[in-house]
Amino acid sequence: MKIKGLFILLLTVLMSTVALAQTTVYQIDLFKSIDPAAWRHVKIGLQKAKESNADFVLLHINTYGGMVDYADSIRTALLQFEKPVLAFIDNNAASAGALISIACDSIYMRKSASIGSASVVNQNGEVMPDKYQSYMRATMRATAEATGRDPDIAESMVGKPSSDSSGTLKVLALTASEAIAKNYCNGTAESIEEVLKKAGIEKYTIQKYEPTTLDNIINILISPAISAFFILMIVGGLYFELQGPGLGFPIVVSIIGALLYFAPLYIEGLAKNWEILLFVAGLVLLLVEVFVIPGFGVAGISGIILMIVGLTLSLTANEGFDFNPQVGLGFTNALALVIVMLVVSTFGSIWLGSRLLQTNMFSPMMVNVEQRKEQGYVGIDMDLFNKVGKQGIAHTILRPSGKVLIDEIVYDATSELAYVEKGKFIEVIRFENNQLVVRQIE
């Protein structure tokens, strides 16, 4: 029994020694456009690798690029990571993907893969001014120098203006064999196992970052397209809430839209407290302008500006108002997204509001029974039809509902547009839904 116990002890020690001798490789797949979700994906993966005490990180890359500011955040995280990072380019590492790749300590590529074409473009694919290209060239050079690669080649991936007067950029992209010749690739490989073998890692275990369901939900919520939809909810809800008295369902939609917009961005550290407070302050100013101060002036305009700034900065990986050109490009794109969605949601809400009650959508909510006069029901005052074409003045502010004064008599009315100040001249243009519809005249 003593011999058997000694044998088990020796076997346990041997197995532990073998286990300790194995190298732990932590795999992170990056098969998507570079955006807030991609940055979050890599950031969590690196944190998991650190917690598991991995010896190497293997970044499996296949991307055509994306948002430069988030690529820069990924680049910084890779350069600052304490353990070696291997990149396996599985077909494409273009644009922002090239910046991320050269931030890794070693690069391996499929024979059919390519890397490069890192010039900065806008959302329409148009090349940005040289201010942005210059900063990107400096970033690429600095990254190449940090990882021991030729900085001139990295700079050429961004491109320099051609010698002729066309102003086009000469942009470098490399195949796998070309990258090997220029010492930008450590070798070709067709699988992760082959990458590790060529890297000299023989005894290893691979741990792979697999996003949880919650991670996937948050990644969806912080994507630019979904953020744009939440802006539609915020603005559309506010518009329809202002069409009637009291608080109702539209304000609930607007609140839900704001929570879904800001909450995931706040959790991920993109939306700061002060950025959210800017939006809230803007909203308060706008409501004060609408319900307290007659007319539309400084408070309303300031409120709209603060709301736009709060929504925009929450989408940007900025530090305060200290924008470098890369982050500045991200701010420009975010600002364009916010303004476009504000305009679309505003005019869309106006159009929808004018059409909604003309459809059969709400027919189940309408009374369809016959209402007879002898049963006590009062019919429509047909004299109101005769007011069409009449002129008068706004007896109160119309937002868009209010009261108008016509022939010394006060009537309930609705403005065709959203707002008419008290005392302005109006004209009745039609009678519908048992109410006068008016518009302001000069």
Number of domains: 3
CATH class of the largest domain: Alpha Beta
Percentage of helical residues?
A: 40-55%
Q: Please give the largest β-sheet.
A: 8 strands, mixed
What's the average pLDDT?
Answer: 80
H and E order: HEHEHEHEEHHEEEHEHEHHHHHHEEEEE
Count of DSSP helices? 14
Structural shape: elongated
Second CATH tier, the architecture of the largest domain: Alpha-Beta Complex
E-strand count = 15
Strand content: 15-25%
CATH superfamily of the largest domain: 2-enoyl-CoA Hydratase, Chain A, domain 1
> Span from first to last CA?
108 Å
Radius of gyration: 31 Å
The name CATH uses for the topology of the largest domain is: 2-enoyl-CoA Hydratase, Chain A, domain 1
The parts where pLDDT drops under 50 for at least 5 residues are 13-20, 361-369
Describe the fold and architecture.
This protein is of the alpha/beta class and 442 residues long. The chain folds into three domains: 19-211, Alpha-Beta Complex (2-enoyl-CoA Hydratase, Chain A, domain 1), CATH 3.90.226.10; 214-356, no CATH class; 373-440, Beta Barrel (OB fold (Dihydrolipoamide Acetyltransferase, E2P)). Helix content is 47%, strand content 18%. It is built from 14 helices and 15 strands. The strands form three sheets. Strands 1, 2, 3, 4, 5, 8, 9 and 10 form an eight-stranded mixed β-sheet that branches. Helix 2 packs parallel to helix 3 (68-80), helix 10 (224-241) packs antiparallel against helix 11 (249-267) and helix 12 packs antiparallel against helix 13. It is elongated, with a radius of gyration of 31 Å. The N and C termini lie far apart (108 Å).
